[in-house]
Amino acid sequence: MTYRHLTKEEINTLLSQNCFADNWTGITVKEGFSTENIINTRFEGNIKLGIYSGTIEVEKNISRTCGIYNSFISNCEISDYVYISEVKNLSNYIIEGNVVISNVGSMALKGESAFGNGIEIEVLNEGGGRELPIFDRLSSQIGYLTVLYRHDKAFTDKILGLIKDYCESKRSTRGWYKQAQGFRIHSLFAMLLSVVMLLFREPVSLKKGPSGVVKKHPYLLAWGLLRKSLSSCPDQLLKEE
């Protein structure tokens, strides 16, 4: 995919639309890029921008013009036909096409993260010794074998080793919102993330699957608080009707 630097005219247009950058040469754009729908946004670091024409549905029967508005963007790749509005800090993420992110306080990945993969929880025995490492492909069968077969040390070491290797393979210095037909993040979820960041004094790392709607669902939010990770797919849509 070919990217180019901004022209002088495009930079002047962005400045007139109250957009700023610490280094304009750090911003590259796709062929077909237009400055029209980028307003009141600050960019820092290395930025890749796509095409933001047309509209996108942000709520049922409610659409907005694609673009980036009133936001702070740092070291991100933002693909085509997205709507990003009122995001106070979006740092170190790859945003694929057809994604909506609005009214978010901070979504920043600092350093390396496994996005919740590998976190151990105590199950069955509260005294410890049967910890279960959670990961995005954990099933009830794997959980059963991992927790209840501790008497078979060779087997347990093997399965825990496989899980550890998988979790390590998920480590990255960038979060990723995969291309979605309808991935949406709205303000109430963002408010919880802000609380999590205050409680844990560390960045909240999220990795999203290809479909999902996150909006004011208390159980889903609590799950996100625990794992700091959400995954979804088209046949298992994270959604509140």
Question: Explain this structure to me?
Answer:
The protein is α/β, with parallel strands linked by helices and 241 residues long. It has 5 helices and 22 strands. It has helices at 8-16, 140-148, 153-169, 187-200, 218-227, and strands at 3-5, 20-21, 27-30, 38-39, 42-44, 47-49, 55-59, 62-65, 67-69, 72-74, 77-78, 83-87, 90-91, 93-95, 99-104, 107-108, 120-122, 131-133, 175-177, 183-185, 207-208, 213-214. The protein starts with a strand and ends in a 14-residue tail after the last helix.
* Counted beta strands: 22
The value of Rg in angstroms is: 20 Å
Mean pLDDT equals 81
Number of DSSP helices? 5
Distance between the termini: 37 Å
Q: What general outline do the C-alpha atoms trace?
A: elongated
Strand order of the largest sheet: 1-3-6-11-14-19-21
Helix content: 10-25%
β-sheet strand percentage: 25-35%
Uncertain runs: 188-205, 210-227, 234-241
Structural domain count: 2
Helix and strand composition category: alpha/beta
SSE ordering: EHEEEEEEEEEEEEEEEEEHHEEHEEH
The profile of the biggest β sheet is: 7 strands, mixed
Layout of helices and strands, plus pairs?
Elements: E1 3-5, H1 8-16, E2 20-21, E3 27-30, E4 38-39, E5 42-44, E6 47-49, E7 55-59, E8 62-65, E9 67-69, E10 72-74, E11 77-78, E12 83-87, E13 90-91, E14 93-95, E15 99-104, E16 107-108, E17 120-122, E18 131-133, H2 140-148, H3 153-169, E19 175-177, E20 183-185, H4 187-200, E21 207-208, E22 213-214, H5 218-227
Parallel strand pairs: 2-5, 3-6, 4-9, 5-10, 6-11, 9-12, 10-13, 11-14, 12-15, 13-16, 14-19, 15-20, 19-21, 20-22
Antiparallel strand pairs: 1-3, 7-8, 17-18
